[in-house]
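Listing S7. Sequence submitted for prediction.
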Amino acid sequence: RRLYFDTHALVCLLEENGFTTQQSEVIVSALVKIMHTNLDMIYKDMVTKVQQEIALQQVMSHIGGVKKDMIILEKSEFSALRSENEKIKLELQQIKKQVMDEITKVHADNKLNLNLEKSRVKELHAQQDRALTQTDRKIDTEVADLKTMLESHKLDNIKYLAGSVFTCLTVALGFYRLWI
């Protein structure tokens, strides 16, 4: 171990400042012991270059192992995620197919219901048209019957009127003859 100061110069300095030679040497000796103890403490906490290289190699080997483990884990995790993603895609396609089937069924049901309603409405209109036609025929028949009855009554009235006129004329002529 080397000391980076001159111990003799320190002894001389202490003697110049009023210390005896023996006191100066004891003080310098105590300082040297304190420095050696401090250096021992410092050296105990320090590592050598070789130890540092070994520790660095160990750390690098651990880092390499961790990297390999991370790559393996990442690949396996990625594979797991990929397979999970494929499962979800398949489920989604099945659900999509089911939804499309349901939509098709609902669309077909609605179309069928709409066609049924259209045919019901057409049938109802046809029934109404038939009923209206029958009613028109009945009205026409009734009107024709009424016209016929009116013509027959008219004829009867004309007959009665003609009979009444002739009767009145006959009676008038009879009175006329009687008076004349």
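Caption to Listing S7: primary sequence and predicted structure tokens for the chain studied. The chain has a mean pLDDT of 89. Residues 15 and 127 are 144 Å apart (CA to CA).
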